[in-house]
């Protein structure tokens, strides 16, 4: 528990290490911590466990047998260990607790020794800029991670489809290709039912009646 608490407070734990079946696998966690790539001196000191991995495996087995007695091959846990074993487990637990109290930092369990983390690359770039030397070349990103690159699915490459033209562009192209329409014919002028009187002529009296 002290080892898992130290990892949780410094480098963190994966969901499987925190709640899954690997939550009690402190030997696997210690193995990943010892094979991780430390960045600082505090992380290198944190990799030095207070006892060998064999003693840690024995302590893990004793803890699981005491917590889950039904899974201990039909034996009573109190009959499997003697008073000397109890004293050994107590000494190992005290050493582990003292190690966690003096712990400052732990390396990331998921960081392999051959892959440099972004934090370390940034620190190297800052140191190079202060020294006046050019930046170190970084490995190129895979084609699928580059912006604008075609997506990969298996071994086939899916080409990028052309973007359809907007609707207003289609209407303007169709109007430019069609011939101009003739102007509509003028409406016929209406004919008058009678001729208008001549200017200056007086109307007849019979017309008024």
Q: Would you kindly provide a written description of the structure presented here, covering whatever features stand out?
A:
It is a single chain. The protein has 209 residues and is an all-alpha fold. It has a domain at 2-101. The chain has helices at 2-10, 15-19, 26-35, 41-46, 53-67, 77-80, 83-101, 118-131, 167-177, 205-208, and strands spanning 152-153, 156-157. The chain has a two-stranded antiparallel sheet with strand order 1-2. Strand 1 (152-153) and strand 2 (156-157) form a beta hairpin. Helix 1 (2-10) packs parallel to helix 7 (83-101) and helix 3 packs antiparallel against helix 5. Residues 112-120 and 149-157 have low confidence and may be disordered. Residues 166-178 have a biased composition (Low complexity).
Please outline the major beta sheet.
Answer: 2 strands, antiparallel
Shape: rod-shaped
Radius of gyration: 45 Å
User: Approximately what portion of the residues adopt beta-strand conformation?
Assistant: under 5%
Number of discrete helical segments:
10
Strand line-up in the sheet with most strands: 1-2
Region (Disordered): 105-209
Biased composition (Low complexity): 166-178
Biased composition (Pro residues): 179-196
């Amino acid at each position: 528990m002290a080892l898992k608490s130290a990892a949780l407070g410094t480098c963190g734990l994966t969901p499987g290490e925190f709640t899954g079946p690997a939550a009690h696998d402190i030997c696997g966690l210690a193995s990943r911590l010892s094979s991780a790539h430390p960045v600082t001196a505090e992380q290198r000191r944190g990799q030095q466990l207070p006892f060998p991995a064999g003693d840690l495996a024995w302590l893990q087995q004793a803890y699981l047998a005491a917590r889950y007695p039904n899974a201990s091959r039909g034996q009573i846990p109190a009959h499997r260990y003697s008073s000397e074993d109890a004293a050994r487990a107590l000494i190992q637990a005290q050493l582990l607790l003292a190690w966690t109290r003096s712990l400052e930092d732990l390396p990331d369990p998921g960081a392999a020794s051959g892959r440099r983390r972004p934090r370390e690359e940034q620190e190297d770039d800052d140191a190079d800029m202060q020294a006046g030397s050019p930046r170190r070349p970084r490995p190129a990103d895979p084609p699928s991670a580059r912006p604008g690159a075609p997506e990969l699915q298996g071994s086939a490459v899916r080409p990028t489809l052309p973007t359809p033209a907007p609707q207003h562009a289609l209407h303007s192209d169709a109007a430019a290709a069609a011939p101009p329409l003739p102007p509509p014919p003028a409406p016929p002028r209406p004919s008058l039912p009678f001729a208008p009187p001549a200017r200056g002529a007086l109307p007849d009296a019979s017309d008024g009646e």
